[in-house]
Amino acid sequence: MSKHGKILVAMSGGIDSSVAAVMLHEEGYEVIGITMKTWDYASSGGSKKETGCCSLDSINDARQIAVSLGFPHFILDIREEFGDYVINHFTNEYLAGRTPNPCVLCNTHIKWDALIRRADKLDCEFIATGHYANLRYENNRYIISKGVDSLKDQSYVLWGISQQSLSRTKLPLGNLKKSEIRAFAAERGFTDLVNKSESYEICFVPDNDYRSFLKRRVPWLENAVKDGEFVLEDGTVVGRHEGYPFYTVGQRKGLGVALGYPVYVVEIQKDKNRVVLAKADELSRNGMWVDKINLQKYEKLDDKKYETITKVRYKDEGTPALISQEGNKIKVLFKHGVFAIAPGQAAVFYENDDVIGGGWIESSFTQI
User: Fold this and answer.
1) CB count, 10 Å around CB of 95?
2) Does the pTM of the predicted model rise above 0.85?
3) Given CA atoms 225, 102, 56, 181 in this order, what sign does their dihedral have?
4) Do residues 179 and 90 share a domain?
5) Rounded to whole angstroms, how far apart are CA atoms 119 and 72?
6) Among 63, 99, 269, 341, which residue has the least CB neighbours within 10 Å?
7) How does DSSP classify residue 281?
8) Residue 42 is assigned to a structural domain of this protein
């Protein structure tokens, strides 16, 4: 009989999730490891060798940790539901002229749900992951907050998880820094983990070439959208482009437009197959609308404005902003302009280190 009960640990084969499993095992949990197979890269037609959390090597690495410590390990094949939801959404968002964030979508709608379902079948009370974030229960709410390692903090990608799922979640790495994780693994002889490189690419686009992925995924796309117009904000045509889905707001490199000064993508006009360009200082916006909201710290937002630090992308440091809920959307007013707010990305609202909640950026604006 275990000290703390049974816990299902998501193990990608990397150092973070492996150390999370080892820590919980040492704390006295009856650990069951599980590796989720989300994507078979060979089927995408990419040229790069399969790497990352879906590769055979990663699955074997996770299993080896489990074998060495004597706890069971399973592989959960979720390729069908992952493809139907995450990859279709990824493709459709680019076709809609937006910039998707598949990792947030996967955590929210695929991985956590899949883990909970399998935990139920295995009589596990809890699930755990190797994310760098903290979780606590306060005022009848489960609240995600930033991990202590500011360079590794992953609270941004966890805003969409429901209260019910959070009630069964453990995040053992939140109070540790990456250096401590590496030291922990080294002390226990897991040198392969310490030396293993980390992947920051989208798992189903491991060559980091989403344009080629879209062309393979939607064969008719290239001919349907090629030879569109690059325009300035006043409508002046300044060049031709390869098709609106192949550009993102804030992009500067790879435009092939020479105007004598740097220009960036400021807007995607899907219906006209136009990509709007502007100077850097013209990409600043001080407001945005966010929809498809999920709140964590509060059950609902009262009829007032909340002072927050709001992040508009994963590596964003965040900007002071006032947020208020209007119907099913949140209106965000930044204290100063924010560069290249991209519709389709996740917006996450923080109160100190706590995640108030988040949603998907619908549009941005400038309020005088």
Assistant:
1) 16
2) yes
3) positive
4) yes
5) 13
6) 269
7) G
8) yes
Could you confirm whether 203 is annotated as catalytic?
yes
Helices then strands, each counted (H, E), the chain: 11, 17
Q: Which of 29-43, 107-121, 144-158, 216-230 has the lowest mean pLDDT?
A: 29-43
Neighbours of 67 (CB within 10 A): 12
Asked whether residue 161 is domain-assigned, the answer is: no
Angle between helices 88-95 and 210-217 (to 10 degrees): 100
Domain contains 143 = no
Do 273 and 294 share a domain, yes or no?
no
Tokens of 140: 């009848």
Which CA distances in Å does 81 have to 63, 100, 112, 171, 207? 23, 18, 13, 25, 22
Tell me, yes or no, whether 186 and 47 share the same domain.
yes
Instruction: Give residue 3's pLDDT band: very low, low, confident or very high (50, 70, 90).
Output: confident
Give the range among 98-107, 178-187, 319-328 with minimum mean pLDDT: 98-107
Catalytic pick among 53, 54, 106, 124: 106
State the residue range of the domain holding 66.
6-130+172-195
Contact 271, 114 (CB under 8 A): no
Pairing of strands 346-351, 306-311: antiparallel
Q: Is 106 a catalytic residue?
A: yes
How many Cβ atoms are within 10 Å of 49's Cβ, its own excluded? 11
For residue 1, what are its two tokens?
């009989």
Do residues 185 and 194 make contact, with C-beta atoms less than 8 angstroms apart? yes
Tally of domains within the chain: 3
The edge-to-edge listing of strands for the beta sheet with 228-232 is: 237-241, 228-232, 274-278, 264-269
The pLDDT of residue 47 is above 80: no
Question: Residues 53, 54, 124, 203: which is the catalytic one?
Answer: 203
